[in-house]
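Issue 218. Parser rejects a valid record. Input:
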Amino acid sequence: VDIKVGTTYNAVGEALSAGSAHVGLIPGGTFVLYDDGADVILTATRAGLNKDSDNPADWNDGEPTLPTDDQVTYYRSLIIAGPSEKGQELLNKVNSGEELTLEDLQGARWGVMGPTSSAGYIYPTIWLRDHYGVMLSDMNTVRMDSYGTAVNRLATGQVDLINIYADARRDYVDRWLEIDAPGLESIWTDTGVVGVTPGIYNDTVSVTKDTSVVSEELKAALQQAFINIAQTEEGLEVIAIYNHQGYQVATSADYDVAREAQELLSEGN
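Output the parser choked on:
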């Protein structure tokens, strides 16, 4: 086995397509760019969360979002409303079972990440397109920040909504109470979810489509080998560098939403 580190994920995708690499560990977004020459065989797994509903109100019980022992192949992005007057107005509508309108969302101040961020920009854009037929760029007030800065702006009322990965509030529990803003009590009660995106599939183990090198039998053997590796303590230590906790058999169709994300990027959102 000859192991090489690619200079970029795209370089690995190109090597798989050319057949100069036979197996590559690449993100879902990279796989769909090179799926003419690469096949996905596994999706990495991570600890799931105790909340995973498409209905935003189901996330708003005021209790922490906690990890579970279950392994999942994706994570979600959430549109989080803060303690500002507008944020609470939207949150109250969601919690009472009302549908938010496009006017509601366009009247809010958004804190977002850069346009290549899956959780902070791309998948919330897909959510807006699927629900309202618009893009994030169609919102009236959009501020581009890092996650930490966006959380700070949410707490101080500078923005009403932020886009953030589903377990992010766990990362900012303590920092939330250190922010100099009146009335803050807990990130779990001061904020709430008003939108839940489709699942963002985790990293892939992909192989070249060159069947003279990677046969169906070898694919099956590789799948089982990676799954077995993740079931040992030593193996988990090895794959921890990728933040992988296990693997599940994958199909190309699992990454259809990632293809939509790439289309949005190519259209400039």
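Fixed in the parser; the record now loads. The mean pLDDT is 95.
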